[in-house]
Amino acid sequence: MSEADNSPPQNITENNLNLNTTNNQQTRTQLPRRRRSLPRSINRPRQLNLLDFIIPRAPVYFGLQTKAKTQLMTGFCFHEHLHSHGFFRKIRDVMKSSDKIDYYVPQADSLNYGSVTLVDTYYLNTNITMEYVKPSDRNDAVAIRIKGVSRTDKEYLVSVYSYASVSVNDESGLAEASAEKIQGYNADYKDFQLTSQYQSKLPVTTSYVSAHSDNPYRPSDLVSSHIGKHKHTYQLPNETITAQLPRQEKSNTNINFGMIQKVFETPFEWVLYLEPPSNPISKDFDFDTQFDVAHQNFVAKFISTFPHISAANREFAQQTLSSLLFGLSYFRGERMIQFPNKTIVTYHDAELYSFIPNKPSFPRPFFWDEAFHEMLVFRWDYKLFMKIFKSWFDLQVNDGEWTGWIAREQVIGKEAQSRCPEWAWAGQVGTMNPPIFFFTLHDFILEHPSSGLSFLKKVYPQLKKTYDFYYSKCHIKGQPYAFKWPGRTYEGEFGGTLDSGMDDYPRYPQDIDTEVDGDLQSWMALLSSTMRDFAYWSVHTEDYKTYAENYEQTLSYLRSNNWNENMQQYQDSLGNGKFSEHTGYIGVYPLCLKLEPHNTGNNPRIPQMLKLLNDTKKLLHPTAGWRSLSPDDSGFLLSGNYWRGAIWINLNYLCLKGLKYYEDHYPEIKELRSQVRQSIISNMMKEYYKPHGGIFEVYMPLSGKGYFNVPFTGWSSLILLIMEDI
């Protein structure tokens, strides 16, 4: 990122990189679908690239889907096989916190292979492990293995369901089950089959069903419906097995869902292949061998990408990266936008590549979160980064005054909608998170100049639109270089706004016209300097001049209006020399974002911010990182413990990165940085190696213990960049 002195960037090429510093179709009428019958002539499968398989689907424990307008989806669900008809509330398909299942991802590079273990101590007392791997040099097929092991001396009966479905929008689609195979046709993938290849022991029984489903992403609904209609009972030597799918059922029309149910006694193992019938996986394929090869490739790439992470910390770091990568998802379908007049416009065929923060609680993408995820992703797979970045900015609105707006969270497609209350489906136009995606792109270009500059040319017009939206919608009327978050999400004594990304961080109780928010003022200064660099690199001379001027003016306003001389820190300004006096992350934002001049010895603000960062009675937890709010602040832990004290790893990473920029000029910074960096690493590893086996969303401001969502597959994974010290 550019230096605070606003020196113009130098020429950037592959050999010299030195800095001083979509349109979606609207509602259409659906045509009636026609049924295809099996058997049918074999269709030649199209060639699939690496991004055509996305593993897993976001809301489920384990599933796959193809990247296509008409999606092919597969998945698995399970439950303890009991006499009780109450098993339906215990079926595991869509991941929910109420399931009370611990899950962790020992290893995964989601485009190639992975493993997830589910620890069910509440109902099953069984560990279920689901693994997948693509055969070498193939992107059109994948092998899947499901294993179940009892956690006690007792063996349990477990119903495992494997299913495949095609989209209800696929007019020629078909998915039909038999005892050992689901086969069908999808408009994009062509012919497919999901075949049972190996079982470590014979199942107690096998059942299957073929049906039409308007909600193929909710298999538990179909299971419940069909078992309710067909109460099969099978007499075994020692007990009666109930709750079986019908041996075979075909709906009258539009079969788009096939499911196989096998009842196993633990321990068990079941291997299936998803493949085109014209090009099946080789008979010589060995799951263990291929999985080991994929894992060794992952380890080698990890060591090459993160060479400074010690061997002692490598297992933790690899599992943390795997958890993030396992959250890679693809969303396609309708999205809704609500305009100020309450009109909701539905856009069809939107699509988005993105990671998700957490499968049980946040199985959908967030603009603010994803920008942090991508700081890690572009170092791991820069081609994937470009794909994700472009898909986010392709969601821009192009509609008059709202042009450039991108919703802060995305609910795209029926499956995503099924995990949200209906009132949350429509994005509220105008609400938008901080523009940190721009800065992630900036870092990407610095590390990958050849690909980065070429990519910048493609996205520059979109970047400019979004910049203009921030600038026009967030500046205070009559003061073009002063910015505030619009409105209040949280009312009451300490306010709060979701737009800021720091949801309930204390704000002035009333939304007043003279308010200038210290965090947004900092973001806008940095955004202008970043766009200045982009304009220079892509040779947009007039834009460069505009962004440079905006940067200077915005930064000047920040220093003159948001610095509270009495408290010696940055704060939200209320005008007329008054402030919203809270001691927290906003107090050090300009330092963390490298907006303060670093090469002068007469900057009085830097020592004061360092004092705040080094004070264990204020922001510094002695063994866990920097708190979002000081314990002596009047809003500390009030009405919750989110951004009112909690330790957030994404902001800790930004602060560590910012301090590194200054440490050559302020000797005391090096010791502080080293101490806090090691504290964060040690605390997160200590909290990880407990029964849950995952990193947390946030850490307690007083004890340092992890809490809220776990495993948190989102920005807490920035611990890898903290460990690598980049």
TrEMBL record:
<keyword id="KW-0812">Transmembrane</keyword>
<comment type="function">
    <text>Cleaves the distal alpha 1,2-linked glucose residue from the Glc(3)Man(9)GlcNAc(2) oligosaccharide precursor.</text>
</comment>
<dbReference type="GO" id="GO:0005789">
    <property type="term" value="C:endoplasmic reticulum membrane"/>
</dbReference>
<keyword id="KW-0326">Glycosidase</keyword>
<keyword id="KW-0378">Hydrolase</keyword>
<dbReference type="GO" id="GO:0009311">
    <property type="term" value="P:oligosaccharide metabolic process"/>
</dbReference>
<feature type="compositionally biased region" description="Low complexity">
    <location>
        <begin position="9"/>
        <end position="30"/>
    </location>
</feature>
<dbReference type="GO" id="GO:0006487">
    <property type="term" value="P:protein N-linked glycosylation"/>
</dbReference>
<feature type="domain" description="Glycosyl hydrolase family 63 C-terminal">
    <location>
        <begin position="578"/>
        <end position="724"/>
    </location>
</feature>
<keyword id="KW-0256">Endoplasmic reticulum</keyword>
<dbReference type="InterPro" id="IPR008928">
    <property type="entry name" value="6-hairpin_glycosidase_sf"/>
</dbReference>
<feature type="domain" description="Glycosyl hydrolase family 63 C-terminal">
    <location>
        <begin position="287"/>
        <end position="573"/>
    </location>
</feature>
<feature type="region of interest" description="Disordered">
    <location>
        <begin position="1"/>
        <end position="42"/>
    </location>
</feature>
<dbReference type="InterPro" id="IPR031335">
    <property type="entry name" value="Glyco_hydro_63_C"/>
</dbReference>
<keyword id="KW-0472">Membrane</keyword>
<keyword id="KW-0325">Glycoprotein</keyword>
<dbReference type="GO" id="GO:0004573">
    <property type="term" value="F:Glc3Man9GlcNAc2 oligosaccharide glucosidase activity"/>
</dbReference>
<comment type="similarity">
    <text>Belongs to the glycosyl hydrolase 63 family.</text>
</comment>
<keyword id="KW-1133">Transmembrane helix</keyword>
<protein>
    <recommendedName>
        <fullName>Mannosyl-oligosaccharide glucosidase</fullName>
        <ecNumber>3.2.1.106</ecNumber>
    </recommendedName>
</protein>
<dbReference type="Pfam" id="PF03200">
    <property type="entry name" value="Glyco_hydro_63"/>
</dbReference>
<dbReference type="InterPro" id="IPR012341">
    <property type="entry name" value="6hp_glycosidase-like_sf"/>
</dbReference>
<feature type="domain" description="Glycosyl hydrolase family 63 N-terminal">
    <location>
        <begin position="57"/>
        <end position="199"/>
    </location>
</feature>
<keyword id="KW-0735">Signal-anchor</keyword>
<dbReference type="InterPro" id="IPR031631">
    <property type="entry name" value="Glyco_hydro_63N"/>
</dbReference>
<dbReference type="InterPro" id="IPR004888">
    <property type="entry name" value="Glycoside_hydrolase_63"/>
</dbReference>
<dbReference type="Pfam" id="PF16923">
    <property type="entry name" value="Glyco_hydro_63N"/>
</dbReference>
